[in-house]
Amino acid sequence: MPARSVGTGTVSFGLVSIPVRLYSTSETSGGVRFNMLDPSDNTRVKQQLVNPRTGVIVERKETIKGYEFGKGQYVTFSDEEIKDLQEKAAPAIEITEFVPLAEVEPIYFEKSYYLGPEKGGERAYRLLSEAMRKTGRSALAKHAARGKQYLVMLRPFASGLLMQQLKYEDELKSFDEVPLGEETELKPGELELAVQLIEQIASDDFKPDQYTDEVRKRLWNAIQSKIDGREIADDETEAPQAQIIDLMEALKASLSKNGEVEADGAAAASKPAKKAAAQRKATKKKRVRRAASAPAKRAVAG
């Protein structure tokens, strides 16, 4: 069944105009949505807007919009005033520049749409797609819709084009705000073991079909069980694994779990690991001696 278009537009660069259709990239029906019910009779309840000062219910159509510029202080706008300030919807998707695809960090990505050609635009659509694929570049463009102006990126995808809505720079927090703690030096062998672990479970292809939303799957199974009148079986959860404090040991344990540890990485880390193992062994012996001597001490005291 062909996909249903959610909108139309015209991609333009230079004197070239390409009529296109937009298609959703996601399935909204796959999510699990719950309604709020009255437990006395399972009737769906309604949400109401209430003035907290007077307790009076306010109808949604009677409300106005306001921006709080100070504590409890608002400037108000009517729907007509807001409408006049919004961007007028236009079909144009105006390309402003072409940049290397790798230069646009995924942190800017928001919503995605598939782009398909309108009738009569197939040749120009194919030309733009192939030209960007050959140059390794994506197109940054402006697009007005739903009263807003969006920054979007067009890039080759599969046998056509994908349009990704981007965040503006001022919508992102700076990574400089993230506390990273004091800079520490890596021990010899740690980097080698980390690289070895990455290579051990590395893949040259992204295979999204290997991953599923386990929580959603459990929810659907539980819903179906209740529909069928069956009890929901409790899933047994795995016991948490013992915490490994030493980074080198954690790396080695991870490698051992997935396969053999390569000799070079193990050799570089052997001394710290052996020392830690000896300390744990000595501690265990002390505990055994204490436990053995406790009955004798109680007997003497008696």
Describe the structure.
- The protein is 32% helix and 26% strand.
- It has 302 residues and is α+β, with helices and mostly antiparallel strands.
- Residues 261-276 and 294-302 have low confidence and may be disordered.
- A hairpin with a 2-residue loop joins β1 and β2 (16-24).
- The chain is extended.
- The strands form four sheets. A seven-stranded mixed barrel has the order 1-2-10-13-12-11-9. Strands 3-4 form a two-stranded antiparallel ribbon.
- The protein has helices at 79-85, 122-135, 190-200, 214-227, 247-258, 263-301, and strands spanning 7-13, 16-24, 37-38, 43-44, 49-50, 57-58, 65-70, 73-77, 92-100, 109-117, 137-145, 148-157, 160-166.
- α3 (190-200) runs parallel beside α5 and α3 (190-200) packs across α6.
- It contains six helices and 13 strands.
